[in-house]
Design a protein that fits this description.
Elements: H1 31-34, H2 49-76
Length: 92
């Protein structure tokens, strides 16, 4: 018998036994709606892993762009006679 740990029979308590069932808080977290148990973590994101990776790469690119642009800006406005903290430099 093969055990699939991502798809289990364990899930959060049924909505009828939990007082917060009317708020819709648990929708999308149970095996019946996602195909994965609540303890499987981010396994439910397997089908969108390409988009998730693309979003992280784009975010890293934006951070690098900002750091590079701010470093060039600080370098262009650098005055050697003043300490860096008085010039408001945060990257140099």
């Amino acid at each position: 018998m093969e055990i699939n740990y991502l798809k289990g029979t364990h899930s959060l308590p049924s909505p009828t036994s939990h007082p917060r069932h009317l708020s819709g808080e648990f929708i999308g977290r149970e095996v019946s709606s996602t195909g994965f148990a609540w303890w499987a973590g981010n396994a439910r994101l397997i089908t969108v892993s390409g988009r998730l990776l693309g979003a992280h790469v784009a975010h890293a690119g934006l951070m690098v762009l900002w750091c590079g642009a701010m470093t060039l800006f600080e370098t262009a406005h650098y005055i050697p006679e003043l300490p860096l903290y008085e010039q408001g430099c945060i990257l140099l």
